[in-house]
């Protein structure tokens, strides 16, 4: 155990013991008292947090599952400086976010469950819901976060009420909605590397029955990494990223509401930099003299993403029942080209810099055609009584085309026609769902949910070379029944205990980035999760503090995994017999005084792949050049260049994570001065399914600071992100050389905000 993990373990245990003392005292009093009615927060008290985790507005304390929220000052601070959705990484217990595509294609992990697949049709076990519409493709999941009321993190399977493919959990974004008054804000800032950030919202009532809200954001950063060579792209990591949202609320009667939402994004920038041979062989250290600003390459690097979509949410309040209709549409257009080998060299000879690079790898991934539509009908009871219910139908359809194109900047005839692969996938999902909530007594509430799902996928892939291979076709229809049972028990007016058992499901996956005429698409069957958790949620010190503590254990049968393909830039889908996980999560927040407030979150996740016969190809760079290959520590598999992975943790799954914020504020002159610091820590994790010394992330502690002054309707602040400038490899490419992907360096700037 490291000193950091020991400290975190002791912190979690201390807070858990603190929480247990009131429970022990309560148990001696006999029958628990009924829950106290909701009251307005008093001086120094924390505000009540309302969530919609069960498709109803509820006090977070009353919801029988592990939930965290981000909003207000914390959300503003984490998104300062042009941060994209990866700001969520390690900022909530058991949550990780990373990307091999930069500001696009974020990959989410909850409790260690995620998907490292870089193919553009890869599904993820973490669902993302934006304004009640599921965002299936990973490119949609990176939509900028602005004018958002609240982010909810729902941990554990969410199979009965939300979208699809969510056996690990759901991350839910709720935008600020139109209201019948004139209000808004405008925020602008600039910072290091020419960072410019402009964000605003304008809300206006058009009439007594119509209100609209327009919000938008534009972010720009100059290039900050330079290529000293005369070939390829010369400057990198600059971008222009703009997004906007228009919402129109129509309320012609007291009982009917229609909310229209249209939104779009336009990103121009560069793809992730794959940096050749920056890892020391035999360690996970960066090479001596590593220079973040220097990137010698012979390749072209650029990236474009355009998304647009809309939704219509209708709500009718009828006697005893409320009806909902949610219609969603999303479309995207994507192009990303990068020098995957991360170096440079001569044509028709092994490239030799920096370090050994056995062959040129320069590719572009393109989504020229994409369309997603979804429709949900839902009815819920609204009459008073001990029994409450929800029932609904859900439909989803996605069509996507993916082209993978080979390039060689030092050769004629780019793209390297006729060398490319193409994939086409059509997915449909149908579901019927329902839940029952029953109040047994003032102290006990029970819930049961059920969902039936049918998923259909049609897939084809082909490789075009001197002759065409394919198209190779796959199709599959799968059916699933997901369910959950949970209950909340009021131990005291301040303390609720809960327990939950739930199942989740992810539809089969297909992939076909073919490498040669003999290749075939790969297929992974459906995975099914079973999770058990229990916890307490408690108000402390006259509601000046709040604590949530959960313990959990899960099993995923036929776990879908993504294996590398040895010495080539490919992935292969496989199923493991099962993967297991167990751990603890803690969320704590407190107003320590009138001037000082804090939050503390922590999690421990132990994950394990369990399949004694499963082996994968490992360390492809060692096959190309053993002298510069990686150092595999797993048992050797049955064939050269393979390793058994039974007993390994899931990739990108740190065991320990913690986050901490502290805010100090005091009245000053006619306003308020504040200082806000935030820190996130996580332990090491494996980059891939197999273990190698080079392909293991180091422990990482990153911090931020924001200081500012508020007066009247104005705010001026200065911020810093990754203020200690911790730089290390977060990911790698293992088929070519010791290539690393680096985290964001330190940045800083100032912001000004005006509200009206």
UniProtKB/TrEMBL annotation:
Topology in membrane: Multi-pass membrane protein
Domain TonB-dependent receptor-like beta-barrel: residue ranges: 283-723
Renumbered ranges of motif TonB box: 48-54
Domain TonB-dependent receptor plug positions: 60-170
Keywords: Cell outer membrane, Ion transport, Iron, Iron transport, Membrane, Receptor, Signal, TonB box, Transmembrane, Transmembrane beta strand, Transport
Family under the similarity heading: Belongs to the TonB-dependent receptor family.
Protein name: TonB-dependent receptor
